[in-house]
Amino acid sequence: VLFRSKNEYVQSVLKLTYNNNILGISQDCASAVKSLNDMWGRGINDAGYELSRMYYHGVCVDINLDKSQKLLSSAAEDGYVPAQKLLGKSYWSKEIQGELYDKDIHKSAFWLLKSAKAGDAESAAMISAFYRKGISFEEDPEQSFYWADKAFNSKHGSGSGVYTSRLAEYYENDYGVDKNLVKAYVFYDLTGTSGIEGRDRVTKQMSDTPIQEAVKQSRAWQEEHNTFVLSYYGLEHQSDGSYR
Description:
The chain is mostly helical. It has 12 helices and no strands. It has helices at 2-14, 29-41, 45-57, 65-77, 81-92, 105-117, 121-133, 141-153, 162-172, 181-190, 196-203, 208-225. It is elongated.
């Protein structure tokens, strides 16, 4: 039953655009809207979330902010993580679905914390930033580090990202965690080209043995996650912009 519902949902979403001829599915707004509404009536939150976005942006339906708001709030309250994250971001920024709500940093934090606890990396990274900047919460370095670390290791959207460089900075500057130059090197290294300056800076404070340990840890993570940065292959950024 679950597989059939997921298959029905995917086909309905594909019918919303003109770009799916390669899959043999052409646009059919009427069919997509009917199917998504039927699924929403059966309690499938993916459909309610999709309908909320459709009513907000006017995709295959007329823009209806009231319907969009009700659908998004209902899906979030039912525990649907993408809806919780979108709701949290909508309370924060007009660039998301902010026309639905007045800006409210406390409601933003409330919903982002829920989606962060459910394993969403982006939400955890935002909560980390809230604790770092004293937004909604009191500034708390340990909580900021905790949520940055959760973002890196979350179930959904984790791995090397903007929070990787944040972890590097925290380990370098003992912000919310004991200073650890090996860890700082590893996280700077995992950010790729954007972490070169930070990696070079901490390297100047390290001897050969901890540097080799840092390289080992970085490579081990890359191999485990099948994600490779240039340093894995021994390439270094040159002043002319090349890698050799």
